[in-house]
Amino acid sequence: MATSASAQLSKVVKGQYMELPQGDQVQAMYIWIDGTGEGLRCKTRTLDTEPKSIEDLPEWNFDGSSTYQSEGSNSDMYLIPSAMFRDPFRKDPNKLVLCEVLKYNRKSAETNHRHTCKKIMEMVDHQTPWFGMEQEYTILGTDGHPFGWPSNGFPGPQGPYYCGVGADKAYGRDIVEAHYKACLYAGVMICGTNAEVMPAQWEFQIGPCEGINMGDHLWVARFILHRVCEDFGVVASFDPKPIPGNWNGAGCHTNFSTKEMREDGGLKCIEECIEKLGKRHNYHIRAYDPKGGLDNARRLTGHHETSNIHEFSAGVANRGASIRIPRTVGQEKKGYFEDRRPSANCDPYAVTEALIRTCLLDEEGEEPVDY
Amino acid sequence: MSYVSDSSSLNKALRQQYLSLPQGHSYQVTYVWIDGSGEGLRSKTRTMDTEPKSIADLPEWNFDGSSTGQSEGRNSDMLLIPVCMFRDPFILDPNKLVLCEVFKHTREPAESNHRNSCNKVMEKVKDLHPWFGMEQEYTLLGVDGHPYGWPRLGYPKKQGPYYCSVGADRAFVRDIVESHYKACLYAGIKIGGTNAEVMPSQWEFQVGPCEGIEMGDHLWMARFLLHRVCEDFGVVATLDPKPMTGDWNGAGCHINVSTEQMREEGGIEHIEKAIEKLSKRHVEHIRVYDPHGGEDNKRRLTGHHETASISDFSAGVANRGASIRIPHRVGQDKCGYFEDRRPAANCDPYAVTCVMARTCMLEEGKDLHELE
Predict the structure, then answer these.
(1) Which residue of A214, A355, A364, B51 could cross-link A209, Cys pair, CB 3.0 to 4.6 Å?
(2) Number of separate helices (H) and strands (E) present in chain A
(3) In degrees, to the nearest 5, what angle opens at C-alpha A30 toward C-alphas A26 and A34?
């Protein structure tokens, strides 16, 4: 059976418990990124009153030796609340709280990329950078095989599935619908969804978000996806190439613009940025997945609507290029551009930071500048 | 696929139709007590004509101790004395859950009634305002005794991804945890939080901060709620300290302790004094940190899997391999609390808090002698 044993438990019974009133007390679920740079962890605490803003949420700590983040002999790590959302699982007044992780000496943990991203975003505040990220993902059964696929085989070749409808074309839509509603409730800036080219693969888009919000909203959207899938008894995978062979991979195309690009004649600025990006391809590839480019190497082959990982290219309406300028942007001579290189399991803080450094701070070379 | 009980497949919507029937001026009060094993909980319910507003409104009751391992058949009556009342999250307001102390027919405390002596000690140290917080770990099993969500005839991937996890391949049976949390909040239990634990299908909830006798009362009732919630879903909660042998974590009940002096500025001095006293009474503590005189904990306190070895006493800042851990923050602020990581998941919190108060908070010799 493809779904988890937990999913078989009675949801009617669960519903009865979840409706119990809780007085003035509030459950705050603290969420953080673990030592892998991809995994999310969470734990909950009771608060006596409803937090109205981030400032009302206390610091916390956790056992980093159990999350690949520290040794047992010096295991305490700190959780610093950074962004608060409504909880679509426990509902109001309960909260989801995205946190930054600090080591015992209060320095950023290795996989805490939010810290420097925030500094970089503050430097270019006045240019009003907007981002939109297209998160692709694959739904798997608990056996690790894509959900809805025949258990020891493959479905028919790609073609009918992209934006498809019908039980023979769209696998797992319940998850997508539930996730969309949950994100809207939570206050996450989800702007759309669609079925993807590979069956059991889907996409949702988060944005437009300004600055640091892009990373915050995308990470919480990912958490909500994992939690929704857990409830249904399936697994969401952000692996960039879950099935080798003639099956699409999963990316996280990142759309980017500044105030200047969005105004009349902005296309010139877009072209200048693409010029700068062309000179720093390797630096970006390293920032675009959690393994310095190794994950993306399985996905960016030059086939299946990807560019080749070793080459940089750009073009209007070209889905085989590293950077695509949408047709309407080419026509209106202003707007935004799409970087198609980031992998589905990228860290959005690392991706957005890299774009700002190269395009707005004019950095060059293999290493980021330490300001 | 994991096994749930037959009862859990009874129609819960149908059940709800009956449970939502109005009950007029009758009040259901469920009496809860600890049985002869020192680990098991029992309960039975009675109807009352007026809503009990406090413990004083609740009458004494009795039960058949020969059926709970607590007395012989020919002299079986045992007494239930209500001590702590909570709202009932199963049949809802205005019905109540009442934690009771058990007494023999002679009015002496039953063998597994550790609350009685604990209360006496807490009375003696009440001016120190001792606060406790206990971290109850537990494992969820199917009715076949195998951890729920594990492959039926085997094991999941090794530990690493499960602690505080999310996802159907990492966090098993979260429904129980969520339901239990809500039930505790409703009932009035001081539940401080929850998290998924290192072994899959293992979870933790924290109760506290509670002052004095309240720690045992709230933790025992929280355990009752856990068993009752699990029963509803058709799974089983075990507090066994080492449910799976091999490279799998055990289950403890770490206890966090402080007095007013420890919480005040410079309190670290009092924390260190307490740890010094604890280091001299390691064997006495181990004996009461599980219901079998330390035998249960032998399977768990190996020195591996974030435990200290049962034969050694150690303490350290942020050290999860020590008997006593001083949180990093406390080490920096120089005041706060300390964590004793030795109690087993199936410990009796009355026995644990009692020995903690005796060792750390009573004056040697004099007070102890008065209590004997």
Answers:
(1) A214
(2) 10, 13
(3) 165
- CB nearest B192 (choices: A11, A45, A72): A45
Span between the terminal Cα atoms of chain B, in Å: 54
Is the CB of B173 less than 8 angstroms away from the CB of A9?
yes
pLDDT digits (tens, 9 = 90+) for A274-299: 999 999 999 999 999 999 999 999 99
CA A98, CA A219: separation in Å to the nearest integer? 8
pTM recorded for the entire structure: 0.90
Contact residues, chain B, for A235 at CB < 8 Å: 167-169
Q: What is the DSSP string of B322-358?
A: SSEEE-HHHHHHT-S-EEE---BTT--HHHHHHHHHH
Q: Which residues of B touch A49 (CB under 8 A)?
A: none
Distance CA A192, CA A207 (A): 9
Token representation of residue A346: 């990228």
Condensed to tens digits (0 to 9), the pLDDT of residues B195-247 reads 999 999 999 999 999 999 999 999 999 999 999 999 999 999 999 999 999 89
Distance from CA of B204 to the nearest CA of A (A): 10
Q: Which residues of A touch B161 (CB under 8 A)?
A: 39
Task: Provide the H-helix boundaries in chain B.
Answer: 12-19, 115-124, 174-187, 214-233, 260-263, 268-279, 282-288, 295-298, 328-333, 349-361, 366-371
Residues A225-273 pLDDT 10s: 999 999 999 999 999 999 998 999 999 999 999 999 999 999 999 999 9
Cα-based distances in Å from B98 to A188, B128, B351, B352: 43, 28, 20, 22
- Count the helix, strand and coil residues of chain A and give each as a percent rounded to the nearest 5: 30, 25, 45
**Closest CA in chain B for residue A223:** B166
Asked if the Cβ–Cβ distance from A17 to B182 is below 8 Å, we say yes
Which residues of chain B lie closer than 8 angstroms to A66, CB-CB? 163-164, 198, 306
Task: Dig out the tokens for B123 from the structure.
Answer: 């009375």
Q: Tell me the one-letter amino acid at B12.
A: K
Give residue B131's Cα distance to chain centre.
15
Contact B328 A13 (CB under 8 A): no
Gap between the Cα atoms of B231 and B219, Å rounded: 18
ipTM of the predicted structure?
A: 0.84
Query: How many of the other CB atoms lie within 10 Å of CB of B195?
Result: 24
Average pLDDT over residues A1-25: 92
pLDDT digits (tens, 9 = 90+) for B44-98: 999 999 999 999 999 999 998 888 888 877 778 899 999 999 999 999 999 999 9
CA distance, residue A229 to nearest chain B CA (Å): 7
